[in-house]
């Protein structure tokens, strides 16, 4: 297995060295692109599974809830982010180090209407015989100190390619619409510049709690309406 020294790639990315002089960086980019094909395919497969679950549960025969999935986003980790993450873990760049250590190379974000939809979707997905749940981080039950709430699920799914079947790891982040509003804005505020203010952090935390209260109020109303329909 070919390994490329991570420091050198970081230097190239930081433009401390000329990119064109290196045979190595052509090879690393090609390796990244090869992995991208596999991970994109895994994302497509998992996206389809989730859309099918949502469609079936929304159908009349199930008398389920409409539009549990408000929005679905997918992304492949950018080359630079892969390099930075390997560097922070003091690992060199290779197919093995990426596959074994970068679990969010392929990421799906499922934005749900209500928090109970998140559990319904995860439960349905976990019943697919080809899906293996590797890890669940439940930040709904135990929110992050920042105020962040969501459920992160790491799964393994087989993808059938021309010559082989590959077991691919995909990270799915399940959030509610309300939490997506908070997380998107908080993310852009935090990463805009590297501020560290306990007061502002506390304010953001309080806003997260308030948004969660509003969401629960909406859920209470929805449940009352659900009962009227029964
Ligand atoms: P990473 O190495 O960043 O993946 O951290 P980790 O392995 O500890 O994963 P974690 O479960 O913390 O999830 C990281 C991802 O969750 C981030 O890339 C964000 O998308 C999201 N996330 C986690 N915490 C926060 C937060 O406080 N605010 C926002 N806006 N997003 C968060
Ligand atoms: Mg991550």
Automatic annotation (TrEMBL):
**Highest taxon listed in the record's lineage:** Bacteria
Domain RelA/SpoT: from-to ranges: 74-197
Span of the signal peptide:
none
Q: Which CDD domains match?
A: NT_Rel-Spo_like (cd05399)
Query: Under which pathway is this protein filed?
Result: Purine metabolism; ppGpp biosynthesis; ppGpp from GTP: step 1/2
Instruction: Write out the GO biological process terms.
Output: guanosine tetraphosphate metabolic process
This chain belongs to which protein, by name?
Answer: (P)ppGpp synthetase
Q: Which organism is it from?
A: Enterococcus dongliensis
Organismal lineage: Bacteria, Bacillati, Bacillota, Bacilli, Lactobacillales
């Amino acid at each position: 297995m070919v390994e490329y020294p991570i420091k050198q790639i970081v230097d190239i990315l930081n433009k401390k060295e000329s990119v064109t002089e290196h045979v190595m960086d052509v090879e690393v980019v090609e390796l990244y692109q090869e992995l991208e094909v596999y991970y994109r395919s895994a994302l497509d497969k998992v996206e389809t599974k989730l859309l099918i679950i949502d469609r079936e549960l929304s159908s009349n025969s199930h008398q389920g809830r409409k539009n549990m999935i408000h929005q679905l986003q997918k992304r492949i980790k950018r080359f630079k982010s892969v390099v930075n993450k390997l560097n922070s873990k003091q690992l060199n760049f290779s197919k093995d180090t990426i596959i074994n250590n970068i679990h969010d190379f392929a990421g799906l974000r499922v934005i749900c209407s209500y928090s109970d939809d998140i559990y319904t979707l995860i439960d349905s997905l976990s019943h697919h015989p080809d899906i293996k749940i590797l890890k669940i981080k439940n930040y709904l039950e135990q929110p992050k100190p920042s105020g962040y709430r969501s459920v992160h699920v790491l799964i393994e799914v087989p993808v059938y390619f021309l010559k082989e079947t590959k077991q691919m790891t995909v990270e799915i982040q399940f959030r509610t619409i309300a939490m997506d509003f908070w997380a998107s804005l908080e993310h852009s505020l935090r990463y805009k510049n590297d501020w560290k203010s306990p007061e502002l952090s506390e304010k953001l935390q309080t806003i997260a709690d308030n948004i969660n209260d509003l969401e629960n109020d909406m859920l209470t109303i929805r449940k009352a309406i659900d009962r009227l329909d029964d």
